[in-house]
Design a protein that fits this description.
By secondary structure, the chain is an alpha/beta fold. Helix content is 40%, strand content 16%. The protein has helices at residues 6-21, 39-54, 70-82, 101-107, 119-126, 141-151, 172-181, 196-201, 245-248, 262-283, and strands spanning 2-3, 29-35, 58-64, 88-91, 161-165, 185-189, 205-208, 226-229, 233-235, 238-240, 254-255. Helix 2 packs across helix 10, helix 6 crosses helix 7 and helix 6 (141-151) packs across helix 10.
Length: 284
C-alpha cells in the first residue's frame, strides 16, 4: 500500500499558486464568513487565513454572532459582493438552523463564489463535458482536491469504476460530476443503498464521504484500489476517518490518511480557486 500524502501535494500546489499570484497586478482577496463559535469551523477558518498569508493573499475573516438575523447576513454578503478588494467569498457551512442557507448562497456573486455553490456555478459543473486542467477549472474545493489526489497516483482515471459513498452537496454530488468529466464510470452510494459491500468491491477508485467513522473496512475494498477518505470524525479516540485505516491498508493500493489527506488539499484548492477568480477580474 502506498500512502497518498495530501500535506506534501498541497504544499506543492500552494507553491504554484504563490508563483502565479506574483504575476497579477493586485493581490487576490478572500473573505471567509463564519457564523457562531463552532470549534471545528473556527479551526478550519483559521487554517484558511493562515494559508492565505503563506501565499501572500489579502484575507478577511468575518465572524458573525450565532443570533444574527437573515437580513443582517444578507447585507454582509451584498457588501462583500461590492468590495473590490475581495475576489472570492467563502461561506463556512453549516449555518444555524434559523438562517436560510440556500437564499444566502444565491446572493453571493457567482463571479466571487469560491466554493461553486451558487446555482449558476452548479449548472456550469453539470454541463462540464471535458477534463480541463485543474489549474483552470473552477470547481468545489474538496472535490477538486480529491481529483488531484487521485491523479497523484499516476493511475489513469478514464475507464475506471469509481464508487462515491455519500451524496452531499459539498462533496458527493459535485465529485461524481468531476469524475464523470474525467471519463470514469461512477456509482453513488448512500444510506439507502442495498448491497453496499458488493458495490464497494467493484471500485477501482473508492471515495468515502459519508461522515460515519470507520464505515469502510478492508473487506469492502477491492485489492489494489485507490481509497480516498474524506471523513473527519471526532471521537473519544481522536480524529478518525470514514475508512478503518488498519484493515484498509492491508488491501488498498493507495490510501489517504486522516488527518493529512483530503483536508490540506481542500485548503490548497481554495487558494487556487481564489487565484482563478482574481485572474478573471484582472483579465476582463
Amino acid at each position: 500500500m502506498k500512502l497518498i500524502d495530501g500535506s506534501a501535494i498541497s504544499q506543492q500546489l500552494k507553491k504554484e499558486v504563490l508563483d502565479q499570484a506574483k504575476q497579477l497586478r493586485c493581490k487576490p482577496g478572500l473573505a471567509v464568513l463564519l457564523v457562531g463559535e463552532d470549534p471545528a469551523s473556527k479551526v478550519y477558518v483559521n487554517a484558511k487565513e493562515k494559508a492565505c498569508n503563506e501565499v501572500g493573499f489579502y484575507s478577511e475573516k468575518i465572524v458573525l454572532p450565532m443570533t444574527i438575523s437573515q437580513q443582517q447576513i444578507e447585507e454582509t454578503v451584498v457588501e462583500l459582493n461590492q468590495n473590490t478588494k475581495i475576489d472570492a467569498i467563502l461561506l463556512q457551512l453549516p449555518l444555524p438552523e434559523h438562517l436560510d442557507e440556500e437564499r444566502i448562497i444565491s446572493l453571493i456573486d457567482p463571479a466571487k463564489d469560491v466554493d461553486c455553490l451558487h446555482p449558476y456555478n452548479l449548472e456550469r459543473l453539470m454541463t462540464l463535458r471535458q477534463n480541463l486542467p485543474m489549474s483552470e477549472l473552477l470547481a468545489p474545493c474538496t472535490p477538486k482536491g480529491i481529483i488531484r489526489l487521485i491523479q497523484s497516483t499516476g493511475v489513469e482515471i478514464a475507464g475506471k469504476k469509481a464508487v462515491v459513498v455519500g451524496r452531499s452537496q459539498l462533496v458527493g454530488k459535485p465529485l461524481s460530476l468531476l469524475l464523470l468529466a474525467e471519463d470514469a464510470t461512477v456509482t453513488i452510494c448512500h444510506s439507502k443503498t442495498m448491497n453496499l459491500i458488493q458495490e464497494c468491491l467493484t471500485a477501482d477508485i473508492l471515495i468515502a464521504a459519508a461522515g460515519r467513522p470507520h464505515l469502510i473496512t478492508g473487506n469492502l475494498i477491492k485489492p489494489g484500489a485507490i481509497v480516498i477518505d474524506v471523513g473527519i470524525n471526532r471521537t473519544l479516540q481522536g480524529l478518525v476517518g470514514d475508512v478503518e485505516f488498519a484493515s484498509a491498508q492491508q488491501v488498498a493500493g493507495w490510501l489517504t490518511p486522516v488527518p493529512g489527506g483530503v483536508g490540506p488539499m481542500t485548503i490548497a484548492s481554495l487558494l487556487e480557486n481564489t487565484l482563478i477568480l482574481a485572474r478573471n477580474v484582472q483579465d476582463s
